[in-house]
């Protein structure tokens, strides 16, 4: 599946989730946005653990280790900020949709081996980071009310844009380029 196809699929999933719930990601409050971000980070950590279990490709393994380290660190910062603010993230339609999609993708990728797994993982990581980065940059950050939460999202976005670039290099590496 091409990256454009995967981006379209992710965008479609977001649109279907919003249509089904008559909500939009732009309508989420800060605590719902925090839940989506925490969920998205945990999904990427889950994908990374699967990659470490299945892949022997050095580029894939290096990327997976980076995902675990960076996403856990951002989640730790988010949880610390929520504790400071005496707030709890709020589950919502988008978090639930992301988890459902992740469950399906983990089942799909678990059935793959070798180069087929590496290619699917790499392409998914690139598409996932592009879609999430766009959502964070264009929808979440402009709609976050709390300045501390907004700053955390801006810092996280800088890290995750680096992941997107790293994912582009990984896709080239697993495709022999």
What topology emerges from the helices and strands here?
Layout: H1 3-21, H2 30-54, H3 58-84, H4 93-110, H5 114-143, H6 147-174
Helix pairs in contact: 1-4, 1-5, 2-3, 2-4, 2-5, 3-6, 5-6
Features:
0% strand; 177 residues; 6 helices
Report on the architecture of this protein:
This protein has 6 helices and no strands. It has 177 residues and is mostly helical. The chain has one domain (3-13, 29-174): Ferritin, core subunit, four-helix bundle (Ferritin), CATH 1.20.1260. It is elongated. The chain starts with a helix and ends with a helix. Mean pLDDT is 90; it is low at 4-9 and 15-22.
Number of E strands: 0
Largest sheet: none
CATH class: Mainly Alpha
- In N-to-C order, the SSE pattern is HHHHHH
Q: From the structure provided, what is the oligomeric state, counting identical versus distinct chains?
A: single chain
Rg, please?
16 Å
Named CATH architecture? Up-down Bundle
**Strand-residue proportion:** under 5%
User: What is the terminal separation in angstroms?
Assistant: 18 Å
Overall shape: it is: elongated
User: Structural class, from helix and strand content?
Assistant: mainly alpha
Please indicate the count of domains.
Answer: 1
Kindly report the CATH topology. Answer: Ferritin
Q: Kindly state the percentage of residues in helix.
A: over 70%
Low-confidence stretches: 4-9, 15-22
Q: What's the CATH H-level homologous superfamily?
A: Ferritin, core subunit, four-helix bundle
Number of helices: 6
